[in-house]
Design goal:
Largest sheet: 4 strands, mixed
Distance between the termini: 22 Å
Number of strands: 4
Order of helices and strands: EEHHEEHHH
Helix content: 55-70%
Number of helices: 5
């Protein structure tokens, strides 16, 4: 793989950084309403939820790969219990739902278009990531719930980590 296709800055690894920056620039340039910015903010806050729980669990920052389709924490080869992996996967949607709850209270006091859009972006980001489709958080949570059930009933199988090849939002 060509070294230009990857740029590492500390714990951040950017895949195709020139293309990534160009696409993000164009999208933000044509985002006159600001709704894309709010959606991206909800997505980044979602990922920060995963990163915070990872830091609490592992006591260090993860390597994060940034791609055209989102963020990916490199966790392949690391050992997590099914409960740890479940909590790690649930952290992103939990942040979105907590923010949506806070904004719902704020909107009850004063309704604004941007406030409504931020509420919707967080609600939709959280709900989308709960879909039980790999590599989304819902699939991770379902696999971990299954592993916890098997562990409780005498059949334990550790869930596998992900090698970041898909590069979508969520814990991998």
């Amino acid at each position: 793989e060509c070294p230009v296709n990857r740029l590492r800055v500390g714990k951040l690894v950017f895949r195709d950084p020139v293309l990534l920056c160009g696409v993000v620039y164009l999208l933000l340039y044509f985002d006159a309403s600001g709704f894309l910015r709010l959606g991206l903010l909800a997505a980044v806050l979602h990922e920060l939820g995963h990163i915070l729980v990872y830091c609490i669990q592992q006591r260090r920052l993860p390597v994060i790969e940034v791609t055209m389709t989102g963020f990916c924490m490199r966790t392949a080869g690391e050992r997590f219990s099914p409960l740890q992996r479940f909590v790690l996967a649930a952290a992103g949607p939990a942040v979105n739902f907590a923010l949506a709850g806070v904004w719902a209270v704020r909107l009850a006091q004063t309704v604004t278009i941007r406030g409504s859009a931020f509420w919707a972006a967080n609600l939709l980001t959280g709900l989308f990531n709960l879909l039980p489709v790999p590599p989304l958080d819902g699939a991770q949570m379902a696999a971990c719930a299954g592993a916890l059930w098997q562990q409780k009933h005498g059949k334990y199988a550790q869930t596998a980590g992900n090698d970041c090849k898909t590069g979508t939002f969520g814990v991998k």
